[in-house]
Specification:
Blueprint lengths: L2 H10 L2 H4 L5 E2 L3 E2 H18 L6 H10 L14 H19 L4 H8 L14 H18 L4
Antiparallel strand pairs: 1-2
The structure holds fe (ii) ion (2 copies).
């Protein structure tokens, strides 16, 4: 098994990650399933384009990229405000429970680029997660994942 899938399986055993099942996302999904799809898509894209990536940090960053811990549909928050603020919130929350590397922080912080225009991805891993997040979000909105 690859380092990526080993890390993903490890994370799966953790209550901090299971917590993400409590929040819905993009109508048809939960934040847990969304993050798992984004992680897997990021890894598949890396493989497809023969990009060498840090597999365990890609898995951790992707699984935590939406660690904002609320239900955007139920909270009194506008879609724009949620869109621009939740990457920061996810990073703050994730850092309370995990010791994150700079690469993992970059993945979480920059995943909403270009909406967060100044949060430009600084790594291949962060760019892959940002792209995969958009692809998966469209699949979930259309309920085709
Ligand atoms: Fe997000
Ligand atoms: Fe996301």
């Amino acid at each position: 098994m690859s380092e990526f899938y080993r890390t993903l399986n490890d994370l799966d055993q953790q209550s901090h990650i299971q917590l993400l099942k409590n929040f819905s996302q993009h109508r048809s999904s939960t934040t847990y399933h969304h993050c798992k799809r984004v992680a897997t898509m990021s890894y598949k894209l890396a493989r497809f384009f023969h990009l060498s990536v840090h597999e365990s940090q890609l898995a951790r960053g992707a699984m935590l990229h939406d660690y904002y811990l609320y239900d955007a549909m139920k909270e009194d928050i506008s879609p724009y405000r949620h869109g621009t603020s939740h990457a920061n919130q996810a990073l703050v929350n994730a850092q309370k429970v995990y010791n994150l590397t700079p690469l993992e922080q970059d993945i979480i912080y920059s995943h909403m680029w270009p909406l967060n225009i100044t949060h430009v991805p600084k790594s291949k891993e962060a760019a892959l997660v940002s792209i995969s997040d958009k692809i998966v979000a469209i699949q979930e909105f259309l309920n085709i994942s």
